[in-house]
Each structure stands twice: as structure tokens, then as C-alpha cells.
Specification:
With 168 residues, the protein is of the alpha+beta class. 30% of the residues lie in helices and 33% in strands. It has one domain: Aminopeptidase (3-Layer(aba) Sandwich). A seven-stranded mixed β-sheet has the order 1-2-3-4-5-7-6, sandwiched between helices. The chain is globular. Bound molecules: coenzyme A.
């Protein structure tokens, strides 16, 4: 299924709130991504994406067949990390396993390296999140290391991975 990325619009709030309200998504993300995920959470998120577009971040809605089905973003570092950006993403569960996020990651990283003076884009999936690790590998990221016991999620200590893509 073909994937497009588009800037966020306030019209996307109901769709994104519905798709994001899923424990199978939240359990793979930082606690800042809430569960349950309410309409107010979606309003806050989308408004922030619109207000800060291109200013320290580049957030896009993932679109398939004209519908918003996920979220992807680059978050620029500061100070000595200002040539690095962190990548984050999630997709509505009904669309998993069709290569959509691998395509979205490739698109956003290409745009990120074009728009910003970046040396590196990185992501830190939990080590058990094989699907996310495969997405990064498909998009050309390299595994730089595994951070033992670096994450405390839902009462459990977990390992996380550092994956990076260097500016071509
Ligand atoms: C991770 C996520 C974005 C993947 O999106 P997706 O569009 O399904 O990913 P793709 O289809 O592009 O690629 C997934 C790959 O992982 C594989 N995969 C997925 N789940 C897997 C699992 N549990 N075990 C092994 N492989 C798995 C798929 O087979 C595919 O590999 P392949 O193309 O080599 O066959 C989606 O599952 C998601 O939103 N998860 C919840 C949120 C999340 O984890 N976000 C990332 C945080 S770092």
C-alpha cells in the first residue's frame, strides 16, 4: 500500500485519536504517549506539530488511501547534539506488516537531511520490538549498540537499542 506524508491539520484529530488509543502501540513508546489516548491528547499533539513545524522538529501524518493512519517525526537535538535528530513513529495496528512504516521512514529521513544541517538521525526502539528494528534496518539504519536495562516501562526494566542513519 502506498504511503504519503503530509503536514498535520486540525481535521486529523479525530482519526489520530481513534488509532492512537491502543495499548499495543503505547506499550512500545515512551510514557509521554498516554493510554488511554483521548481526543484532548490528540488535540494537544496535533496543535504542537502545527505550531512547531520546521522549528526543532518535523512531524508528519502518515497517509494511506487518503486517510491518516499514523504519525512520524524528527526531533532535532540542541547544543553539541544539534546535528543529530531523533526519529519516532507509530502506525494504526490494522496496517501493520505491509511495509508502510519502512517507506515512511525512508521518506522522512530524506526530507530531514535535505531541510536541516544534520549529520545523523537516530532511533531508540526497545530491544524486544523486532518490528520497529526491522523498519529501521529496511531504511538503512545501523545498529550501534544495545543499552542494557536502560528503559523502565510498565514496571519492567528493558534493554533498548541505538540505531542510526548517517547523512549520505
Ligand atoms: C513498529 C511499527 C511502526 C512497524 O510498522 P509496519 O508498517 O508494520 O512495519 P513494516 O511493515 O514496514 O516492517 C515491519 C517488519 O518487521 C517485521 N515484524 C513485525 N513484527 C514482528 C515481530 N513481532 N517479530 C518479527 N518480525 C516482525 C515484519 O515482518 C516486517 O519485516 P519484513 O518486511 O522484513 O518482513 C508498528 O508495528 C507500530 O506502530 N508499532 C507500535 C509502535 C512502535 O513500536 N513504534 C516504534 C517505536 S521505536
Amino acid at each position: 500500500m502506498e504511503v504519503q506524508l503530509k503536514p498535520w491539520s486540525l481535521d486529523d484529530i479525530p482519526d489520530i485519536a481513534r488509532h492512537a488509543n491502543n495499548p499495543n502501540i503505547a506499550c512500545n513508546l515512551r510514557d509521554a504517549f498516554p493510554h488511554p489516548y483521548t481526543l484532548a491528547d490528540a488535540e494537544h499533539f496535533v496543535s504542537g506539530c502545527i505550531g512547531n513545524d520546521g522549528i526543532g522538529q518535523l512531524c508528519r501524518a502518515v497517509v494511506a488511501d487518503g486517510a491518516v493512519v499514523g504519525s512520524i517525526g524528527l526531533f532535532l537535538g540542541s547544543d553539541v547534539s544539534r546535528k543529530s535528530a531523533e526519529l519516532g513513529y507509530w502506525l494504526a495496528e490494522e496496517f501493520w506488516g505491509r511495509g508502510m512504516m519502512s517507506a515512511a521512514v525512508r521518506q522522512l529521513c530524506a526530507e530531514g537531511f535535505t531541510r536541516f544541517d544534520l549529520a545523523r538521525i537516530y532511533a531508540e526502539p526497545f530491544a524486544y520490538n523486532i518490528g520497529s528494528r526491522r523498519v529501521l534496518e529496511h531504511a538503512g539504519f545501523s545498529l550501534e549498540g544495545i543499552l542494557k536495562n536502560s528503559v523502565f516501562k510498565k514496571g519492567r526494566l528493558l534493554d533498548s537499542c541505538v540505531y542510526a542513519l548517517l547523512c549520505p
